[in-house]
Design brief:
The chain has 390 residues and is of the alpha+beta class. The strands form four sheets. It has a five-stranded antiparallel β-sheet, with no helix packed on it. A three-stranded antiparallel β-sheet has the order 1-6-5. A three-stranded antiparallel β-sheet has the order 8-9-10, with no helix packed on it. β2 and β3 form a beta hairpin. α6 packs parallel to α8 and α7 runs antiparallel to α8.
Length: 390
């Protein structure tokens, strides 16, 4: 239709141009294309026809280019290739799962992150719509639904991150192309997984554990800058406790919009309230109320060039959670007592056996000594008898 409209317009212009002067037409049709150089001495019909012909050719070329682009974007293999771009969103989602488990997230520019995250998620939501029939997209949508669950449970309340990720995950699941029966089965599975997972996580963190309100009381950094300490006042239904933790000070990560604080820590002291902790560093040693509790030289390994943390110890905590489970703590306490009792009984038994063996050896030595003395006495008596007989 576009070329036909252009031709009708050209015919109208030609009829009008017949009654107009050449100068007026040149002013009305101001051609800026460098390839078109016309002179006022040429016939007006030639000028007008060349102008219209070039515009028609440009329109046809544009239509041809659009057809080529349409053929490209509708090609199934092109869509299949584009569907692999969804892996980026899956990797980012898995990376944030790792972050919320091993780091505390602090927003350094929350406004910028709140703008960047929705734009990033919107791009991949459009990718999901465009490649919804690709099997790769279907697979990635299922993986995203699984990866979003720990992110939601571990970072609940971080809405600038959760809301865009949730929108892309749910939208991708509903728009992907698969059999309706299969989609219903997977939808039911994910719904039950989220409900049961949420209930289990709530019970672990609120029912079977001790609920505390933590308040930061004091903090400081060692003179070398390798470690830092902080004092937490944990209040619960009873008197509560105060904890002193030590952390590596150089493992934090700065990502521009967010800053990741490491959660690796070591509990060096704890006391029930009311108690006050006075912490200070004297060189590499940290003193609490005048007593030595931590020496950073024991946890730093020097390879001759640089220093590395040597914290591969069960006394260090690596995750962002520190939950106290009274039942589990009681069970572990009794297990420790039983193991100590068994080990002590085993040690006592081994000591008794050693003493018994030593007594037997001693008795045997005494018996052999008695036999030897008896033999000597008999020999002496025999020699005396023989001498008397002589």
């Amino acid at each position: 239709l576009v070329p036909a409209v252009i031709v009708l317009f050209a015919n109208s212009v030609s009829r009008i141009a017949k009654d107009a002067t050449e100068e007026t037409v040149c002013k009305l049709i101001d051609v800026q294309t460098p390839s078109m150089k016309y002179s006022l001495n040429e016939p007006l019909w030639r000028y007008t026809s060349l102008f219209i012909n070039e515009r028609i050719l440009n329109a046809l070329n544009t239509i041809s280019e659009m057809e080529n682009i349409k053929n490209l974007v509708t090609n199934k293999w092109f869509k299949f290739g584009v569907s692999f771009a969804g892996i980026i969103f899956t990797v980012v989602l898995a990376y944030f799962d790792y972050i919320v488990f091993f780091y505390d997230i602090e927003y350094t520019d929350k406004m910028s992150f709140s703008i960047l995250a929705p734009v990033f998620c919107l791009i991949f939501a459009l990718f999901n719509v465009y490649t919804r029939r690709s099997p790769v997209t279907v697979l990635l949508v299922m993986v995203n639904a699984l990866l979003f669950l720990p992110l939601m449970l571990l970072d609940w309340g971080n809405w600038p991150l959760l809301v865009p990720a949730f929108a892309v995950t749910v939208f991708g699941f509903f728009c992907c192309h698969m059999n309706e029966t299969i989609k219903t089965i997977f939808g039911t599975f994910f719904l039950l997984l989220y409900i049961l997972g949420g209930i289990a996580f709530y019970m672990l963190t609120n029912v079977f554990s001790v609920n505390t309100v933590n308040t930061l009381v004091d903090q400081g950094v060692s003179p070398s800058g390798a470690f830092r300490y902080y004092v937490i006042d944990a209040k619960n239904k009873s008197t509560g406790k105060k904890y002193v933790y030590v952390q590596p000070n150089t493992l934090d990560i700065d990502k521009g919009f967010i800053r990741l604080h490491t959660t690796i820590r070591k509990l060096v002291s704890q006391e029930s309230n009311p108690v006050e902790f006075s912490c200070e560093w004297q060189g590499p040693i940290m003193f609490i109320n005048g007593e030595e509790y931590f020496n950073e030289e024991h946890y730093i390994d020097y390879d001759g060039v640089t220093a590395h943390y040597d914290i591969a110890d069960k006394n260090w905590t690596y995750t962002a959670f520190s939950l106290e489970y009274p039942l589990i703590t009681t069970v572990n306490t009794y297990k420790t007592r039983i193991n100590n009792y068994i080990s002590s009984r085993g040690k006592n038994t081994s000591d008794d056996e050693e003493e018994t063996i030593k007594e037997k050896e001693k008795n045997e030595d005494d018996a052999s000594g008695d036999e030897t003395s008896a033999e000597k006495t008999a020999e002496e008596n025999t020699s005396e008898d023989s001498s008397t007989g002589e």
